[in-house]
């Protein structure tokens, strides 16, 4: 998953992907990651957009960039949530989507809270 690799390259924390396709008609995957501060949130967002632009993918929607606390990038098939660590704890998206299966991320992506992580390469 290119977005997850781009986030990992900018040292995003707790990168987790959920298959939400059975729960939502608007997307297949949620990718969630966090950062220690607003500046790093923006850096991760920039890296994801740059990497996916290289694959001819542009977000159809972007929200929260001005505040830099929780930025949402909607690429239709995947929605990326980059959150400030405090907001991630407060909103607890993992708790909301706990019934959805996690998606195995590539080995070169840092591992999420559940401790999984193996090879794979989907968009």
TrEMBL record:
Biological process annotations from GO: cytosolic ribosome assembly; negative regulation of ribosome biogenesis; negative regulation of translation
This protein's UniProt keywords? Cytoplasm, Repressor, Translation regulation
Q: Does the keyword Repressor apply?
A: yes
Asked if the Swiss-Prot or TrEMBL record annotates the protein with the keyword Ribosomal protein, the reply is: no
- Which GO molecular-function terms appear in the entry? ribosomal large subunit binding
Entry-linked InterPro entries? Iojap/RsfS/C7orf30, NT_sf
Q: Where in the cell is it found?
A: Cytoplasm
Q: For this UniProt entry, what is the primary localization, expressed as one broad class?
A: cytoplasm
**GO cellular component labels:** cytoplasm
Which purpose does this protein serve, as stated in its record?
Answer: Functions as a ribosomal silencing factor. Interacts with ribosomal protein uL14 (rplN), blocking formation of intersubunit bridge B8. Prevents association of the 30S and 50S ribosomal subunits and the formation of functional ribosomes, thus repressing translation.
Question: Which family is this protein grouped under?
Answer: Belongs to the Iojap/RsfS family.
Stored NCBIfam families = rsfS_iojap_ybeB
Q: What does the subunit comment say?
A: Interacts with ribosomal protein uL14 (rplN).
Protein's UniProt name: Ribosomal silencing factor RsfS
Q: Which organism is it from?
A: Haloactinopolyspora alba
Q: Which gene encodes it?
A: rsfS
């Amino acid at each position: 998953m290119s977005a997850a690799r781009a986030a990992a390259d900018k040292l995003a924390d707790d990168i987790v992907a959920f298959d939400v396709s059975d729960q939502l008609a608007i997307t297949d995957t949620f990718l969630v990651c966090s950062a220690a501060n607003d500046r790093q949130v923006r850096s991760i967002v920039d890296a994801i957009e740059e990497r996916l632009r290289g694959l001819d993918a542009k977000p159809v929607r972007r929200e929260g960039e001005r505040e830099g606390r929780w930025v949402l990038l909607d690429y239709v098939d995947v929605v990326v949530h980059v959150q400030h660590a405090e907001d991630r704890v407060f909103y607890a998206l993992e708790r909301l989507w706990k019934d959805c299966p996690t998606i195995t991320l590539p080995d070169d992506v840092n591992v999420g809270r559940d401790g999984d992580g193996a090879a794979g390469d989907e968009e």
